Amino acid sequence: MLVFIIRRLLQSCIVILAVSFIVFIGLYGVGDPTLLLIDPDASAAERDRAVAMLGLDRPLHVQYATFLWNALHGDLGRSFVYNEPSISLILDRLPATLELAFVALVLAVGIGIPLGLLAGLRGEGPVDRTIVTASIFGFSLPSFWQGMMLVWVFAVLLGWLPSNGRGAVGEIFGVKTSLVTLDGWRHLLLPAVNLALFKTALLIRLTRAGVREALVLDFVKFARAKGLRERRIIGVHVLKYILVPIVTVTGLEFGQLVAFATVTETVFAWPGSGKLIIDSIYKLDRPVVVAYLMVVVAMFITINLLVDILYSALDPRVRLAEKR
């Protein structure tokens, strides 16, 4: 296992280096942020001073080398717009995005797996068809439209929940979070449901397919022939069999929830890192965009590593394959 982890970490370093090059060149090689940042009435001398201060007067490869050297020391650049370290801006807003993604994932797993299990066990009956049809809505309707409908129904028509903002926050171990206040939960519920709908539909389909496949396998027939109760067969043997792909997909989907919550955060004015990145793209705030993408890549790599470790714990064949 230790060799496996070391090998993955080395691969991760190569991936991060390659991504940093692609992202940096792709962002710094196109467009001119000074057109947005510098006053159009500024003189040529003032413009040159501003360009030099931002470091944009140097060749692109020199800018990249400087970025790489600073990144090794924990500095991912300074925001053109806010004049603050980019990583600080992202880390200030990341807890809001993480709590939103976490609650959305809990909703998706808590609803998607039981419904998928139920649909798979019912097999082509009315319950199965109803659940599958509902999951198609989750797949096919755009996320922004679902969000607007949630706002219209629960905030405008019924007035049950607020439509935007984060609400009151408390602190857990020094981290501000909405999870410890009632007002925070009221503000969190609608965006979390909106973010969870697509993932719930995905888990329903994945679980259903896994159950349908497992029910006809020999180990299930053997368990029934031994006289085991149906609840034990489903709860232990079938569930363990289908958990391997579900854990893999769920881990990757959590990364996507954090990285691509931008639409939901924009619809509900949720003050997370997704809204920050959208604003930064509009303003060509390159250091913030690059830093955000590097954080996202590092997060995906970490999640993948954890999923692989958990995967090997659930399926002993993975460990055997590694040894060979």
Automatic annotation (TrEMBL):
Q: Which GO terms describe its cellular component?
A: plasma membrane
Transmembrane stretches, start-end: 12-31, 100-119, 131-161, 188-206, 238-263, 289-314
Q: Give the CDD domains listed for this entry.
A: TM_PBP2 (cd06261)
This protein's membrane topology, according to the annotation, is: Multi-pass membrane protein
The family assignment reads: Belongs to the binding-protein-dependent transport system permease family.
Q: Which UniProt keywords apply?
A: Cell membrane, Membrane, Transmembrane, Transmembrane helix, Transport
Task: Say which species the protein is native to.
Answer: Elstera cyanobacteriorum
What positions belong to coiled-coil segments?
none
Q: Name one GO biological process term.
A: transmembrane transport
Q: Which InterPro entries match?
A: BPD_transp_1_N (IPR045621), MetI-like (IPR000515), MetI-like_sf (IPR035906)
Keyword Chloroplast in the entry? The reply is no
Q: Which residue range or ranges hold the ABC transmembrane type-1 domain?
A: 94-307
Top-level taxon of origin: Bacteria
Which compartments is it annotated to reside in? Cell membrane
Q: What is this protein called?
A: ABC transporter permease
